[in-house]
């Protein structure tokens, strides 16, 4: 389930963790206009795990409806948030203009959001207010993503000495992920709110991703076709560029044009270059040797719509990396419109495909799809690489919980489709003996 949003009430204050946009089916996206389950003016603090739209997308609306307090996040998350929200603002304005409605937020609210940010570092525990301490730890999901630990001293007890630790995973990374460190290990907590996007599935080894990409590129070269890769602007694109860099510079793939057709991804990649201290040792070693890990011979950035359209005139073989990752808008849809009907072409799916998206339809074997009011036959070969997922799989999620089994009183399994969330909750109960549940929207639990 997208639209991550949690409110923790402690010592007469209200702390929010994430405030994301609902994405997917039309009926799900309609929830973005629904009233919040709380009064935004009564929230005192916001903590952000990372800058994906399903974790930050409703922050402007929250400001619009009365939130006055600070927003805490890491440096990369802060910088990414501006880029993601500004891009979302344009898309929402265009959609509102087509439908003759008022956008749910404007540039004014985006600026107000950015003015509230306070940057924090991993591992630095700080007092949010009297009786509540917070610590951000590396989630390994995207650059700057965080697991958030909140320790609450019970003021109702004499001396306020009894502490309760609540942990929000945000989105946990798929270890190992190119150039990022693995998620931090948490040894002890009283309550855990854990994501479950892949709660019932295993990934291929991320280390195999580069080999699989190499194979697909060699196949497209032999076919003299077009390789389309729908990719999220934040993280997935940078992982792909990192692997293409290794393949191109070590001459493991034939030389051909490789287009990054996503202005947002290009701007986000510049933010990545700003924060090398968040990289793992392998990436730092490459940078130290003088390698630009996100650039290589044959890579072409297309900034304008005109440049994007010119890609159609470049003869194959060629590779096009474009947003969005679920083919739910963005420039990739224009390329799919042109190239999905040709059996010499390949669509490589490297991201999670939410229910109700065009990408999900293609992933599940649709023979034809509708793009921009046109019916397009799907004759291109459709390939999948699950190891590129930025999310931990079922085994990694279970292993994250395991060290806390002696201290956990309750696990709340969130941010997954019903089948995946239920499978993870059941496994935690059966194998670790911990009470685990899948809450519904609007549920309230007393800890």
List the helices and strands and how they pair.
Blueprint: E1 5-10, E2 13-19, H1 26-29, E3 45-47, H2 53-56, H3 59-64, E4 71-73, H4 75-99, H5 107-115, E5 117-119, E6 126-129, E7 132-138, E8 146-153, E9 163-168, E10 191-195, H6 209-223, E11 226-230, H7 236-249, E12 258-261, H8 263-274, H9 281-288, E13 299-301, H10 305-310, E14 318-322, H11 332-339, E15 346-349, H12 358-363, E16 368-371, E17 374-377, E18 381-384, H13 394-401, E19 410-414, H14 418-432, E20 436-437
Helix pairs in contact: 4-5, 4-8, 6-7
Task: Describe it.
It is a single chain. The chain has 447 residues and is an alpha/beta fold. The chain has helices at residues 26-29, 53-56, 59-64, 75-99, 107-115, 209-223, 236-249, 263-274, 281-288, 305-310, 332-339, 358-363, 394-401, 418-432; strands at residues 5-10, 13-19, 45-47, 71-73, 117-119, 126-129, 132-138, 146-153, 163-168, 191-195, 226-230, 258-261, 299-301, 318-322, 346-349, 368-371, 374-377, 381-384, 410-414, 436-437. The strands form four sheets. It has a seven-stranded mixed beta sheet, covered by helices on one side. Strands 13-12-14-11-15-18 form a six-stranded parallel beta sheet, sandwiched between helices. The protein has a five-stranded mixed beta sheet with strand order 1-2-3-4-5. The model has no long low-confidence stretch (mean pLDDT 92). The protein is globular, with a radius of gyration of 22 Å. Helix 4 packs antiparallel against helix 5 and helix 4 (75-99) runs antiparallel to helix 8 (263-274). The chain has two domains: 5-201 and 390-437, Metallo-beta-lactamase, Chain A (4-Layer Sandwich), CATH 3.60.15; 206-388, Rossmann fold (3-Layer(aba) Sandwich), CATH 3.40.50.10890.
């Amino acid at each position: 389930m997208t639209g991550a949003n949690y409110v923790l009430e402690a010592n007469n204050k209200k702390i929010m963790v994430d405030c994301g946009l609902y994405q997917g089916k039309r009926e799900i996206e309609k929830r973005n206009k629904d009233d919040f389950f709380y009064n935004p003016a009564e929230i005192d603090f916001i903590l952000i795990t990372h800058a994906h739209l399903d974790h930050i997308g409703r922050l402007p609306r929250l400001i619009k409806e009365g939130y006055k307090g600070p927003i805490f996040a890491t440096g990369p998350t802060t910088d990414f948030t501006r880029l993601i929200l500004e891009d979302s603002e344009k898309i929402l304005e265009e959609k509102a203009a087509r439908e003759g409605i008022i956008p749910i937020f404007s540039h004014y609210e985006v600026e107000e959001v950015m003015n509230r940010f306070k940057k924090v570092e991993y591992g630095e525990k700080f007092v949010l207010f009297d009786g509540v301490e917070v610590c951000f730890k590396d989630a390994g999901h995207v650059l700057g993503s965080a697991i958030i630990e909140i320790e609450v001293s019970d003021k109702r007890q004499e001396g306020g000495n009894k502490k309760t630790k609540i942990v929000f995973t945000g989105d946990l990374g798929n270890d190992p992920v190119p150039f990022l460190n693995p998620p931090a290990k948490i040894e002890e907590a009283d309550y855990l709110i854990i994501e479950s996007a892949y709660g019932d599935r295993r990934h291929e080894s991320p280390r195999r991703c580069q080999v699989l990409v190499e194979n697909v590129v060699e196949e497209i070269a032999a076919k003299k076709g077009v390789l389309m890769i729908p990719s999220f602007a934040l993280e997935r694109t940078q992982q792909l560029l990192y692997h293409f860099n290794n393949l191109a510079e070590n001459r493991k793939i034939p030389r051909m044009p490789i287009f990054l057709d996503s202005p947002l991804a290009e701007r986000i990649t510049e933010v990545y270059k700003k924060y090398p201290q968040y990289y793992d040792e392998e990436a730092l070693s490459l940078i130290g040797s003088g390698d630009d890990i996100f650039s290589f011979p044959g890579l072409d950035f297309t900034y304008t719509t005109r440049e994007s359209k010119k890609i159609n005139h470049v003869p194959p073989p060629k590779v096009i990396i474009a947003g969005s990752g679920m083919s739910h808008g963005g420039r990739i849809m224009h390329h799919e419109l042109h190239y999905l009907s040709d059996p010499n072409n390949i669509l490589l799916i490297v991201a999670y495909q939410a229910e109700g998206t065009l990408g999900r339809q293609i992933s599940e074997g649709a023979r034809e799809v509708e793009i921009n009011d046109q019916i397009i036959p799907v004759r291109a070969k459709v390939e999948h690489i699950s190891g590129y997922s930025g999310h931990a799989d079922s085994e990694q999620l279970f292993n994250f919980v395991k060290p806390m089994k002696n201290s956990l009183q309750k696990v709340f399994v969130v941010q997954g489709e019903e089948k995946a969330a239920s499978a993870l909750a059941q496994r935690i109960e059966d194998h670790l003996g911990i009470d685990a549940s899948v809450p519904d929207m609007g549920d309230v639990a007393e800890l």
